[in-house]
Design goal:
- The protein has 17 helices and no strands.
- Helix 6 runs antiparallel to helix 9.
- The longest helix has 30 residues.
- The chain is globular, with a radius of gyration of 21 Å.
- The N terminus is likely disordered.
Length: 424
């Protein structure tokens, strides 16, 4: 695959980013103006497109289940609650597996480990489509989660090692957009599948999508040297990453941000039904509008964020926009038009800030960037679980109480981000 030598690390074998100029780290030229963002070559673009497909498959796997719960329960002779445990099993396996399995990217080429992880995810998902028991379903959800845990941290590590900022923000933004697309399309795709296809055919389709993404990635990048870290990680590296001020603050920024976001997003459909007096189908349309805005922001973050400078600036600016959108959304009387405008504002802020959080974690990782990114991926899923549990204790979904904790956690996350970038 063609390489843009201007942005390729010359010392990738040890994961070092020491050769990156300070201006490259901040996204600014020596004059203090925004540095121009170079283009990816066609070959690089094809590999990034494969990463997008893989991330979309891993993401939609969780969201597509919701409309299929009843059919899956009848087929597997289980209750809806028992089938829903498949989401928990997947998330728990991912959160635990990310820091334990992604160190393979230090011993071997990170893009190869990512491809193997996606193939494992595809194989587990394909096998799941043939299951007839609840136990087999749950076991394969765990295996799929472990495959996902090998995929995302190593994709992020490959991109942030291979390309210096500001170029790295572009492919990272495109890959993150795969998750945004999954959020936007997961529930409606599941609803469509429930009416047109069987749940088994749905999972076969997800498995094929993931397998194609893995195959393209391994063919285009599998033999390419120079991105594996030279010093393998040990379990002791994780406590050290949490003790060091820069990585610790970056990870806490991710945890607080995702807890505030997923806590509110989990109950967003119910909130809209209560506040606007609409049914499930109509609230789903509002969620699609959110997902489209988030997808567009993630896709364009590689162009927008570098022009703001260091990663914490994007997090701070879009954090302020997110807080404003959330407080207005949960505090004002809503019309359908106003609801869509505020949802789009929140979605755009989330899309740009999410890429900024990844860039912040990578910039603080140094020669242990895969360690920090693995913890960052794990913290995203921890935030998902904690947010849903935490926000469930607040009073009804139609009150401002949902917006206040979300806004507060976003502010705390922005403070951690600013302090992380200031750490030596």
């Amino acid at each position: 695959m063609a390489v843009n030598d201007r942005n390729d690390h010359t010392n990738d074998d040890d994961g070092s980013t020491a050769n990156a100029a300070p201006a490259a780290h901040s996204g600014l030229t020596d004059a203090g103006t925004a540095a121009p963002v170079p283009r990816l070559t066609p070959g690089e673009g094809g590999a990034v497109a494969a990463m997008f497909r893989g991330t979309f498959a891993v993401g939609i796997d969780s969201f597509v289940i919701s409309p299929l719960l009843t059919e899956m329960g009848a087929s597997l002779q289980a209750s809806v609650g028992q089938i829903a445990l498949g989401v928990t099993a997947y998330a728990a396996a991912y959160a635990i597996g990310a820091p334990l399995l992604s160190p393979l990217g230090d011993r071997f080429r990170s893009q190869v480990v990512a491809g193997v992880g996606l193939l494992l995810f595809a194989a587990a998902t394909l096998t799941l489509a043939a299951q007839t028991t609840l136990a087999g379903f749950l076991v394969l959800r765990v295996v799929a989660g472990l495959g996902g845990a090998m995929w995302m941290p190593n994709v992020q590590a490959y991109l942030t090692r291979r390309y210096r900022p500001p170029l790295s923000t572009r492919p990272v933004g495109i890959v993150v957009a795969g998750l945004s697309a999954a959020i936007a399309l997961g529930v409606p795709a599941g609803a469509l599948a429930a009416s047109v296809l069987s749940w088994r055919q749905t999972f076969i389709g997800i498995a094929v999508l993931a397998a194609v993404g893995a195959a393209v990635l391994l063919v285009t990048l599998g033999g390419r040297p120079g991105v594996a870290a030279g010093t393998p990680r040990r379990l002791g590296d994780y406590p050290r990453a949490l003790v060091a001020p820069g990585p610790r603050r970056a990870l806490l920024a991710t945890l607080c941000w995702m807890t505030g976001f997923y806590g509110l997003y989990t109950f967003l459909g119910t909130f809209l039904q209560h506040r606007l007096g609409v049914g499930i189908a109509a609230s789903g349309a509002y969620l699609i509008a959110y997902g489209v805005g988030n997808f567009v922001a993630s896709m364009t973050s590689g162009w927008v964020n570098p022009r703001l400078g260091a990663p914490h600036r994007a997090i701070a600016w879009f954090g302020a926009a997110s807080v404003l959108s959330v407080l207005l959304l949960t505090g004002l009387p809503l019309s359908p038009v106003l609801a869509i405008v505020l949802l789009l504002g929140w979605a755009v802020a989330q899309g740009y800030a999410s890429t900024g959080l990844i860039a912040l974690a990578a910039s603080r990782g140094g020669d242990r960037v895969t360690t920090v990114l693995a913890l960052n991926s794990s913290f995203i899923y921890v935030g998902t679980a904690v947010g849903a549990a935490l926000f469930a204790v607040f009073p009804g979904p139609a009150v401002l109480a949902l917006g206040l904790p979300s806004a507060l956690l976003t502010i705390v996350a922005a403070v951690f981000a600013v302090r992380a970038d200031a750490a030596a």
